[in-house]
Amino acid sequence: MNTIIRRTFSRAVNAQSFSLQSTKYINSSRLLNNRYYSTESNNTETKAEEKKDLTPEQEELAKLKEELEETKKQVLYIAADRENVRRFAKEDADKAKKFGIQSFAKELLEVVDQMEMALGSCTPEMLQSNKQLQDLHEGIKMTENLFLKIMGNNGLTRSNPLGEKFDFNEHHAIYEIQDPSKENGTIGNVVKQGYKLNNRLVRPAMVGVVKNK
């Protein structure tokens, strides 16, 4: 009998404790919900008050200002884009004007090389002893000078780097020379001269470089 009483009393106490805990949880949940909805309500009311502060004319003016700022941005973007296109087109036109004959001029250099070889094959003794050869030599020399003058008028220039320091950006070494009278790393012989078109290298000079042991 006493055991049954104890069990009944224990169940009643546990039920009362659970009821109290449930009540606390519900109350705290209601409090949180009230706080959440209270904050949201305050934000909505603030926005509504701000809108009420503006007249229809002011709202329209604010809208027009936003549209004007956006239009300004678009106009500036279009103007900058057009300026870039114009600048790039001008650069391309300038490059075409300066270097449009590069491939053509490079092929003509072979003609100049042949004239140089022909002039170099005639020694002073041969020219003095043969009048016809001397006249031919002078004719080739005049043709070469005229050819180089015309090419120079179009920006093509020739350089003879004999005695200069070897520069791999300007010269192309094809063999080495031993010459104690010259400094190492200098150009001791020029097989073919170099050419530039408006300061752009068209063909490097073919040279022999001094290298003493």
Automatic annotation (TrEMBL):
Its domain of life reads Eukaryota
Tell me which InterPro entries the record gives. Answer: GrpE (IPR000740), GrpE_CC (IPR013805), GrpE_head (IPR009012)
* Sorted UniProt keywords: Chaperone, Coiled coil
- Residues folding into a coiled coil are 47-81
Q: Does the keyword Coiled coil apply?
A: yes
A Pfam family found in this protein is GrpE
Q: GO terms for molecular function, please?
A: adenyl-nucleotide exchange factor activity; protein homodimerization activity; protein-folding chaperone binding; unfolded protein binding
Q: What is one process in the GO biological process aspect for this record?
A: protein folding
Q: Does the keyword NADP apply?
A: no
Cellular-component GO terms for this entry: PAM complex, Tim23 associated import motor
The similarity comment for this entry is: Belongs to the GrpE family.
Note the HAMAP family from the entry.
Answer: GrpE
Q: What is this protein called?
A: GrpE protein homolog
Species of provenance: Polysphondylium violaceum
Organism classification: Eukaryota, Amoebozoa, Evosea, Eumycetozoa, Dictyostelia
